[in-house]
């Protein structure tokens, strides 16, 4: 296990210098979920069929959130993302909304933070849309599940 | 359990009209945690004492993230927050960083989303700072723990 | 007809000083439309029923765009909007999408620009979503239709 | 006429994946106009000569607006624009301000939305600067007039 | 001389809680200057009369910069500024551009940072506009000259 | 000494067209300083050792500020910075904080403005953190000290 790259030898925070890295195609996928009351799951399902669709609003917020990553995470590089996909599905067996986000870039640094930010903002948006009905929802299990491209090679979550 | 306020009768998304709500002092507290390898916890502790301090960077990112909430969450109102506090502590027994954020406002709508966003952005920043050492970290258990002010009264998580 | 308030006596641009204005409830409504091929109207209708809903995405973009008005229009005041509603409907007789936006504020200055910006961003989003099918669409007839609150009184478009 | 590329096969909104597109020089030009009272045209002309120059402020807002396109239009890619030009001229015969914007990029996707956004924000800024004198102005005829570069070839408005 | 209010008793950064402060009218004025070659001063003067006006562009950038203060300065409160004025004048005797910015607010916290940010962004914009002619310009002497409103009373620079 | 590139032949502001420039590695370094009371220097030193660290907060704000340059400086190109470093040190002999920022890019245009903006935002943040103790601080001597890469060659401040 190596140390932290976002600090220099004196412990000062910095944006890591990627000038010498090759431009390669990079991809990252993150996942997360929101746990809620069964009644809230039912309301989301009913809305998606008949009325307002919580999951569509959250999907869009997640895509837009990925683009704001360098504004939000202090040491992230500004990136010209070439693809963002966010998917939300109802998991009624577990009273949850499952979220998956995949980001791609042809560039010099990875896009894990963009994928994780997309999942987080989508989850927060689900919370916002449903909070009048259920304040006790929990956002949980946000993690990187896949990463490819770049010198550190491919990562797959266990 | 009521329905969703962010859709009108036809299911169209909207920013809820709060023009007629009273300006009252409102407060919200949210919590969350990041699970990591014991070696990562040790690296963070070592940095906070001697070198770069992951928790200070994440605290600042959380405070700034709270201010970006209306840019990120589609139907949130723009708000003039009167206070933001973000606290991160190492929980070595559980190999985790614990995050707590409290936001306040004198205004017409609650600040739950601001507190939850602060926790989420702080957690993502911890992930970013430590990911060179530990890609398998998980952000988990982000939830509202307290809310006061406004017509819906005080909420305390069970 | 008076002169321009956004310049001082020497012709220098400024944000108008509203410190002495009363906090009143203010509302503004703007409208606009996008003209397109009949086939494009048909594709939007088909999507709203079965697949991707162009109008829902544009509605959300319009709401979020209203919040960005002070970042975009140089001399607009930053405002804590209390309500934003954006509505898009298909007008098949005229091969058009009709857009209406209403913004509200309890504050010291009007919200015309917020309503006009919401309509503009929603229209641009319809263009973006449909441009692979129809590059010749035209955004047209964006105008203020109603304004109330504040010293200048109520305005209704002829 | 093809379908919409911003939805996948299930109708879910996405940012189109351009990872495999070639980096080519791309250019787009958009136009639009604002209709106003003859007295408002006269005030703008007088200001440009003697006092505050509405058209210079709007030109700058248009250039800055082009850069904000990915923040505003949900499914637009973040882009490193290589050129933005915005031109506004008084058309006294038609009681109008004419706006033209041209954006360029060496990259993987077109810049139509950037040019259209520049025109829209410039037009909104003209409205804002002149609204104290003329609330009835109309922003109209915003359309793409030229596009070149990329696989879909050159587009010229009829 | 008191300590720093932006840290709590444990030295953790925070946004100061202003919930209990009174809403009063607050004003702040800041000044600064940019030193340059005599030829650069002459070019700016020539442009302002005949061609592109550096000072008008910088004035607008300063006004817009004041509005971005809470996005830029980590612990600043988001504020609904009621007035921003930025003035730039050529000081040919000293080969300098002089900048003054005044911000106002009816609110719970002071607007010094908004005035100082407006001056800084205006100065950076002058540098950007003129740097092809003169890379050795220096931005200097940015300071608060006046502050009124709020509990700490009126401040005037010596 | 040449003229200004940010205006066209008619004096209209524009973002300079860099489409034809080569992608090269570019670097820029800027410096600046804040003058303060000796007691304020002592408070900053004490905080860095025991409590809240003003210089760490300002370093982070400077890094984040560099990324916001195209949002702030009207005619700057949006850039994918590959490196940002900001350093702040106490100069007790001169009662000052010294700031140095270096930005890098592999791209078509220089990064002077990013380095100068990083220094400016870091300086403003020091002011904000210390203003409760010392309102009379002055931000001074912000200038470019080094620039390399690109057609205009290397610049070193005298």
From TrEMBL, chains A, B, C, D, E, F:
UniProtKB keywords: Lyase, Molybdenum cofactor biosynthesis
Keyword Lyase: yes
SUPFAM superfamilies: Molybdenum cofactor biosynthesis protein C, MoaC
Protein origin, superkingdom: Bacteria
Family: Belongs to the MoaC family.
Active site (UniProt): 128
EC supergroup of this enzyme: lyase
EC number: 4.6.1.17
Reactions that this protein is recorded to catalyse: (8S)-3',8-cyclo-7,8-dihydroguanosine 5'-triphosphate = cyclic pyranopterin phosphate + diphosphate
GO MF, any single term: cyclic pyranopterin monophosphate synthase activity
Organism: Dongia soli
Annotated protein name in UniProt: Cyclic pyranopterin monophosphate synthase
């Amino acid at each position: 296990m190596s140390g932290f790259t976002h600090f220099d030898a004196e412990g000062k925070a910095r944006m890591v210098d990627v000038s010498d890295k090759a431009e390669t195609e990079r991809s990252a996928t993150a996942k997360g979920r929101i746990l809620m009351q069964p009644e809230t799951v039912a309301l989301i399902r009913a809305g998606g069929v008949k009325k307002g669709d919580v999951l569509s609003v959250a999907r869009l917020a997640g895509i837009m959130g990925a683009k704001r990553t360098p504004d939000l995470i202090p040491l992230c590089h500004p990136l010209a993302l070439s693809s963002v996909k966010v998917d939300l599905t109802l998991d009624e067996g577990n009273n949850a909304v499952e979220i998956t986000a995949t980001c791609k870039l042809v560039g010099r640094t990875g896009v894990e933070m963009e994928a994780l930010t997309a999942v987080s903002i989508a989850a927060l948006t689900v919370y916002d849309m449903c909070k009048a009905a259920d304040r006790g929802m929990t956002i949980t299990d946000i993690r990187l599940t896949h990463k490819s491209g770049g010198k550190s090679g491919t990562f797959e979550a266990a």
